[in-house]
Design goal:
The protein contains 1 helix and 28 strands. The relative contact order is 0.10. The N terminus is likely disordered. The protein is mainly beta. About 5% of the residues lie in helices and about 45% in strands. The longest helix is centred in the first third of the chain and has 16 residues.
């Protein structure tokens, strides 16, 4: 069921793309201008690679946060005016904790989960949408999205995702504080554009999700906005779940739950998600792997590939990387130990990029 390389065409194309990039004379190191600004906490790039944005949620005065904007001109990336929150809502906003870009690079979405919304001491959270004039390169704020919280700690905008066409935005929020006895559920919202931006709509699972199950811990949306996937984690059974929502007309409904019931509190299944067309990628950066001829290694991680047929998503194959193996006094061999493969994933066409979060 598992192999070093699954879907050789897909993986090989990724390797070739990365190798070509490594040999390219384009070389830009983005260095933070402020200590503890957390630049690089979130990043996004346009489909062509000509625009990139980098979040620094603790940058500027009082952790207002900034998003730095880069455009590739010739062989280098040139920095432009950064994106910033509205000053009245900037204090401790952590603007840039999450970011995403449409394929053409002209629509940016930025999460500010620490936004106090004018109420000192309580994080409500907000999400900003910026539009870029492609002829001048100038960015302007289009909309600031908020959601009335059921409590004082809402953290709306913890994670954001935008469809490739720029017309569907998915927003996750994490309730940090409920009452003394009752937790408050996390939520995922969708907002769409057809001329103008519509009202915010919550994604509703077919069955209620426990308030402590971290619904929306990871999110992803397809290029056309027709498919949305999100993760939850059952705190009683330690089963990770990926919820699939499909668009029917103007609304979304849950069509499938992919469950990974290994009973491990450290199960990373679904912590990274990507979906495009009929392909779904699910990262699992916390799984142990029994490597052939070498034995078991902890937290190696792997990536799972699912495809859609007849309206259902089915498992195809999993893979983990070929790591450099060297002697280790504790485990016998290192190279695979705590690799964290699958901690982040990005899918575009037949190219897949996988992050190794602990390597």
């Amino acid at each position: 069921m598992r192999s070093h390389v699954a879907w050789p065409g897909l993986v090989a194309s990724s390797v070739l793309t990365l190798a070509a990039t490594a040999q390219c004379p384009v070389e830009t190191e983005i260095v933070g201008l402020q200590a503890f600004a957390e630049y690089g906490s979130s990043v996004a790039m346009s489909a062509s690679g000509h625009l990139a944005i980098v979040g620094g949620p603790s940058a500027a005065i009082d952790q207002q946060g900034l998003v730095r904007v880069y455009e590739r001109i010739g062989e280098r990336f040139v920095e432009h005016e950064p994106l910033a929150p509205i000053p009245a809502f900037g204090f401790s906003a952590t603007f840039g904790r999450s970011v995403d870009l449409s394929d053409d690079g002209n629509t940016a979405v930025v999460g500010a989960p620490g936004d106090l919304d004018g109420v000192p001491g309580f994080r409500k959270g907000s999400v900003y949408v910026f539009e870029r004039d492609s002829s001048t390169g100038v960015w302007s704020k289009t909309i600031r999205i908020t959601q009335d919280p059921p409590t004082t700690e809402y953290s709306f905008g913890t994670r954001v995702a935008i469809s490739g066409d720029g017309d569907t935005i998915v927003i996750a929020q994490s309730n940090d504080i409920g009452s003394e006895f009752d937790g408050l559920p996390d939520n995922v919202y969708v907002i769409t554009r057809d001329g103008g931006w519509a009202d915010l709509t919550p994604l509703a699972p077919a069955a209620p999700v426990d308030p402590f199950d971290q619904f929306g811990e990871a999110i992803a949306v397809s290029e056309d906005g027709a498919t949305i996937v999100t993760r939850s984690f059952d705190h009683d059974t330690f089963a990770a779940r990926v919820h699939v929502f499909e668009r029917d007309g103007s609304s979304y409904s849950e069509t499938q739950i992919i469950e990974h019931a290994v009973g491990d509190i450290f199960d990373g299944f679904g912590r990274a998600l990507a979906v495009t067309g009929d392909t779904l990628v699910i990262g699992d950066n916390g799984i142990d792997i029994d490597v052939p001829d070498l034995g078991p290694f902890p937290n190696v991680g792997l990536v799972n590939i699912y495809t859609r047929g007849d309206g259902r998503w089915s498992f195809v194959e999993s893979f983990y990387p070929l790591a450099e193996v060297v002697p280790d006094s504790t485990f016998g061999f290192s190279g695979y130990i705590d690799l964290g493969f699958g901690g982040s994933v990005a899918l575009r066409g037949d190219e897949l990029l996988v992050g190794s979060t602990s390597h």
